[in-house]
Write a structure and sequence with these properties.
Elements: H1 14-25, E1 31-32, E2 42-43, E3 48-54, E4 57-61, E5 66-68, E6 70-75, E7 81-82, E8 88-91, E9 97-99, E10 105-108, E11 112-121, E12 124-133, E13 140-146, E14 151-160, E15 167-170, E16 184-186, E17 192-199
Parallel strand pairs: 4-12, 4-15
Antiparallel strand pairs: 1-2, 3-6, 5-10, 6-7, 8-11, 9-10, 11-12, 13-14, 13-17, 14-15, 16-17
């Protein structure tokens, strides 16, 4: 049996081996990157699994009351969440409230609701409720959130839980976004509020 005339004339590269493994095991939804030696490597792409809209239930006043909605995305790979996710917005009843399709800013034009404000991104959808009021509802307290670095940061929203009805309204004057909460508490709706800050949702 003739002997093979093939001889190894290269040097072993652990980097090239790692890149080869990445290429073989990568997802088809990924893209090409680069190895340490300049050769291409496959990099998997995050996939959006779901989205959520905030606030979930809100009020604004007629005829020109506005309220900004935002979307948060959940992904299958780190970082697993993304705030202010770009989305396409639509109102279920534009005769009661319109919404900017790009920014999510809703504007009440007539008394009514609740109606749905829906966001869509990468085939995923989520909705929130908006009620357009003809007069101011009962007062409430500023809402805060716990972020990745600190807890007690005001969101710019005001929530009222009077009578068991959980309503949120945008009130950046009394609830300046990003400011720390002075007296953290939980209201009847289960939301974190600043009990020292009164506002009107």
């Amino acid at each position: 049996m003739p002997k093979s005339r093939w001889k190894w004339r290269g040097t072993w590269s652990s980097t090239a081996h790692i890149c080869c493994v990445l290429i073989l095991s990568g997802s088809i939804s990924g893209g090409l990157g680069s190895c340490g030696d300049g050769s291409p490597a496959f990099q998997a792409t995050r996939q959006l699994t779901s989205i959520a809209v905030q606030p979930v239930d809100a009020d604004a006043l007629v005829p020109t009351g506005t309220l900004p909605f935002s979307a948060t995305g959940t992904f299958d790979q780190p970082p697993t969440t993304q705030a202010n996710l770009p989305a396409e917005w639509v109102s279920s009843d534009a005769t009661i409230a319109t919404v900017d399709p790009n920014s999510g800013l809703a504007t009440c034009v007539a008394v009514g609701g609740p109606i749905k404000i829906t966001a869509e991104a990468a085939g995923k959808m989520a909705s929130a409720m908006l009620t357009c009021l003809g007069s101011q509802p009962q007062s409430g307290n500023c809402v805060y959130v716990c972020g990745s670095t600190r807890c007690g940061e005001l969101t710019g929203y005001c929530e009222s839980s009077a009578g068991g009805a959980c309503r949120q309204g945008y009130d950046p004057v009394h609830c300046p976004k990003g400011q720390p909460a002075n007296m953290m508490a939980t209201d009847a709706c289960g939301s974190g509020i600043d009990a020292s800050r009164s506002c009107t949702p």
